[in-house]
Write a structure and sequence with these properties.
307 residues; alpha+beta; Beta-lactamase; three-stranded antiparallel β-sheet; 12 helices; 8 strands; 43% helix; globular; binds glutamic acid
Length: 307
């Protein structure tokens, strides 16, 4: 494993396609050279290559976790009544993302779905809700996490599209009147700081039925892990989810900070960080690493060869 990820790191570190996201000004400051790959097994063993302790913000890689939290707190039926489970084939920030008849967002892996899920975070006030949310992310990572205030402010200032999505959700009664609080919780979860080792550990927690391999504490009940993984599989890579399922075949989620994580249930979690992203919002080096890694390790659930 260690040899393989070092090989992939060496092979793809000179890849120069893509650019760090710039629509959130603070993200444009990322160093395009940063590149890390980390595998974490369900036993907590880690294999690391590159800049594995360089921090970045979760961005949309936060979405599967916050969805897991809502499932744990409200149960499947109530969560599904708010947010559907269908892929859209649309970009991550698409405005046309509400189902025609129910007006639910199509799924929790796109912005509208994650904003609707954020409105469900429990607590008496913003501070309290934020702290509940952070406890859940920390249970996945296995230690305390911080929020980047600079990214949070930068995102908040430029979030006209997300704001309009939230108002549309309010119009259709999908979220309550605390629109600004919900948006703050959404921007804050996108601005949580992790390094590639943390994200890989969070992925391994999903691979390990929701139990953190190090702390042995449960982050979400195991019965909801399949819900999270199936949505990552069908919707986690936005409008290239089909291509990802076809060529890579493992549930994964990407974020515009250049992070991608994947989960091989019962075995390990994989995280790759490299800020330059393609036009679909995926880390260009990350996509190549996942393709080759999946092929080398025969990971696709559809391409298992019987030995
Ligand atoms: N915070 C980002 C936004 O809502 C997340 C997008 C992403 O990572 O795909 O615009």
């Amino acid at each position: 494993m260690q040899t393989l990820i070092e090989l992939l790191h060496n092979k793809y570190r000179s890849l120069s396609t893509g650019k760090p996201a710039s629509y959130i000004p603070e993200l444009a400051k990322a160093n395009a050279q940063d590149f890390a790959i980390v595998i974490t097994t369900v036993n907590g063993e880690q294999f690391c290559a590159g800049d594995f302790d360089k921090q970045f913000t979760l961005q949309s890689t936060s979405k599967p976790f916050i969805y897991g939290m809502a499932l744990a707190e409200y149960g499947r039926e109530e969560v599904i009544s708010k947010v559907g489970v269908e892929p859209t084939g649309e970009a991550f920030n698409s405005i046309v993302e509400l189902e025609k008849r129910t007006h639910r967002p199509y799924n929790p892996m796109i912005n509208s779905g994650a904003i609707a899920i954020s409105s469900l975070i429990k607590g008496n006030n913003l501070k309290n809700r934020e702290s509940n949310m952070m406890s859940m992310f920390e249970a996945f990572a296995g230690h305390q996490l911080e929020i980047s205030n600079d990214v949070f402010e930068s995102e908040k200032l430029t979030a006209h599209r997300n704001r309009s999505i939230a108002h549309l959700l309010r119009h259709f009664d999908v979220i309550d009147e605390k629109i600004d609080e919900t948006l703050d919780l959404y921007f804050k979860q996108c601005s949580i700081l992790v390094d590639t080792k943390d994200l890989s550990m969070m992925a391994a927690t999903l691979a390990n039925s929701g139990v953190n391999p190090n702390t042995k504490k449960s982050a979400i009940p195991s019965k909801y892990v399949g819900d999270v993984l199936s949505l990552m599989f069908t919707c986690g890579m936005y409008d290239s989810s089909g291509e990802w399922a076809y060529s890579i075949g493992v549930p994964a989620k990407s974020g515009v900070s250049g992070a991608i994580f994947g989960v091989v249930p019962g075995e390990f979690g994989i995280a790759v960080y490299s800020p330059p992203i393609d036009e679909k919002g995926h880390s260009t080096r990350g996509v190549e690493v996942f393709k080759e890694f999946s092929h080398e390790c025969n990971l696709s659930i559809f391409r298992k060869t019987i030995i």
